[in-house]
Specification:
- The chain is an alpha/beta fold.
- It has a single domain, classed as Spore Coat Polysaccharide Biosynthesis Protein SpsA, Chain A (Alpha-Beta Complex).
- The two termini are about 15 Å apart.
- The strands form two sheets. Strands 3-2-1-4-7-5-8 form a seven-stranded mixed β-sheet, with helices on both faces. The chain has a two-stranded parallel sheet with strand order 6-9.
- The protein is globular, with a radius of gyration of 17 Å.
- It is built from ten helices and nine strands.
- Helix 6 packs parallel to helix 9 and helix 8 runs parallel beside helix 9.
């Protein structure tokens, strides 16, 4: 199957050329990369455009007018990929916190599952060894908090390294998604679960970024915690209709 990678960027000038090289060196003939840049002040968008000279038609760039949020970046990116005929779509970060090599395993898993997730919390998964204990605890608690409130059998609900089958994204109500940041990942996992699609997690090592600045903040974390309750309320209709068993993958 062809695979489209969607990477939102904001001030990732140092990372994006290295990431593009890593992705196109995976040896996947039908791989395309879509970079969604929110008018980065450091020139990420221009650098992404220059990479077209190297990778040609397999590299695409969506330039947006300003910082509009992670959720809308992914939703716009997904739509473009679906319109281009993508059979599988992978979402990931630009800063190498997600290992590009894992895309091969995620893609293979789509043969039997509707959504594949790279998880820090299944057996074998882990967080950066250099993280302080409080930071690891906060991340773990955030996942536990959302998982318990929403009643989801997904261990890494805030994880941003996922591979989607085309049919999955077409079969979930993307037009209802409002969240940004961590909450976007939670909302997407939740509506996929409520829609009865199969979800499989594989272990990943989540590395801290080496280049550029983190986009995470306390404000984003608080917004995500509050948003979980809104998500629970907004999808109560889907919860009532949820299949007792997951849809079987043909």
């Amino acid at each position: 199957m062809n695979i489209f990678i969607v990477i939102p960027t904001y001030n990732e000038a140092e990372n994006i050329p290295l990431m593009a090289e890593s992705l196109f060196n995976l040896g996947l003939n039908e791989l395309h990369l879509l970079i969604v840049d929110d008018n980065s002040p450091d020139g990420t968008g221009a650098i992404a455009e220059s990479l077209k000279k190297i990778y040609g038609e397999k590299l695409h760039v969506l330039h947006r007018e300003g910082k509009q949020g992670l959720g809308t970046a992914y939703l716009e990116g997904f739509k473009i990929c679906l319109d281009q005929g993508a059979e599988a779509i992978v979402q990931m970060d630009a800063d190498f916190s997600h290992d590009p090599q894992k895309i091969i395993e995620l893609g293979a898993g789509l043969e039997r599952n509707h959504l594949m997730g790279g998880s820090r919390y299944v057996e074998g998964g882990s967080l950066d060894q250099g993280w302080a204990a409080w930071r690891k605890s906060l991340s773990s608690f955030g996942n536990f908090y959302a998982r318990v409130i929403l009643g989801m059998p997904v261990l890494d609900v805030t994880g941003g390294f996922r591979a989607w089958r085309r049919e999955t994204l077409l079969g979930i109500p993307l037009d209802r998604v409002k969240s940004q940041g961590y909450a976007f990942q939670v909302e997407m996992a939740y509506i996929t679960y409520l829609s009865g699609f199969t979800i499989k997690e594989i272990p990943i090592y989540f590395a801290d970024r080496e280049r550029g600045d983190s986009k995470m903040s306390l404000r984003i974390q608080i917004e995500a915690a509050r948003r979980v309750w809104a998500i629970l309320y907004e999808y109560r209709d889907l919860k009532r209709k949820r299949h007792k068993k997951y849809i079987q993958v043909p």
